[in-house]
Amino acid sequence: MTNTVAITPYNKKLVRATFWMVEPKADEAAEIFYTKLFEMSPELRPLFKGNMRDQGKRMMEMLSTVVKGLNTLDVLAPLVRSMGRRHVNYGIKTEHYNMAAAALMYSLKEELQENWNEEVESAWLEVYQTVSDIMQSA
Ligand code: HEM
User: Fold this and answer.
1) In the chain, how many H helices and how many E strands?
2) In sequence order, which residues have a C-beta less than 8 Å from that of residue 67 and are 6 or more positions away?
3) For ligand 1, is residue 10 a contact (CB within 6 Å)?
4) Does pLDDT of 20 surpass 60?
5) Cα 109 from chain centroid?
6) How many structural domains are present in the chain?
7) Cβ atoms of 34 and 53 closer than 8 Å
8) Residue of the nearest CA to atom 37 in ligand 1?
9) Residue 88 Cβ contacting ligand 1 at under 6 Å
10) Rounded Cα distance, 117 and 34, in Å
11) Phi, psi torsion values for 56, nearest 5 degrees
12) Is the minimum distance from the CB of 97 to ligand 1 under 6 angstroms?
């Protein structure tokens, strides 16, 4: 049903290894992410109604849940789908997912510095795409 098996073991390994480097700086990573997102797409700013620091924490916690569950994403799928349904209510459209992908890649790159490369980027894009697909399949 979902294409979670399509994530290669090597990409899972890269995403796990790099996420652990970013996690201690999760607040900073979230701040870079939202700053970049609103710089690229200011029209998205009004869709966020709450405190952005709290929002950043929720977003990073969800990423952590996904990264920990990479081998069993099917188990997480119902949770991810209900999150996808809530995003429809927030006014999130298909094209917004690509904007967030670009901002996330930027933020990871800033945090990872010399540990960032094209291989790491494509591994993260594969994971992001998979999660976005599940969210949007709801
Ligand atoms: C992998 C993709 C994404 C993940 C893991 C994610 C994660 C989250 C989480 C955990 C929340 C907290 C509330 C909830 O669970 O419903 C949330 C809320 C929200 N997200 Fe996302 N999100 C993703 C994609 C996006 C995209 C693409 C956008 C738009 C650019 C977006 C905009 C929002 C907005 C507007 C809220 C509500 C904030 C508020 O109430 O102030 N999200 N997101």
Assistant:
1) 6, 0
2) 15, 16, 19, 127
3) no
4) yes
5) 13
6) 1
7) no
8) 48
9) no
10) 22
11) -60, -40
12) yes
**Contact between residue 15 and residue 115 where contact means Cβ atoms under 8 Å apart:** no
Question: What domain range includes position 24?
Answer: 4-136
What CATH code is carried by the domain that includes residue 18?
1.10.490.10
Residue 106 near residue 36, CB atoms below 8 Å: yes
101 lines ligand 1 (CB under 6 A): no
Q: Would you say 84 and 138 are in contact if contact means Cβ atoms under 8 Å apart?
A: yes
Mean of pLDDT over the chain: 95
Residue nearest to ligand 1 atom 14, measured at CA? 83
**Going by CA atoms, what residue is nearest to atom 38 of ligand 1?**
48
Alpha carbon distance 108, 85 (integer Å): 26
Q: Is the CB of 90 under 6 A from ligand 1?
A: yes
Which tens digit of pLDDT belongs to each residue from 34-76? 999 999 999 999 999 999 999 999 999 999 999 999 999 999 9
- Token representation of residue 51: 């405190």
pLDDT at 5: 57
Cα of 101 to ligand 1 centre, how many Å?
12
Nearest to 96 by CA among 60, 136, 137: 136
Tallying the residues shown for the chain, one arrives at 138
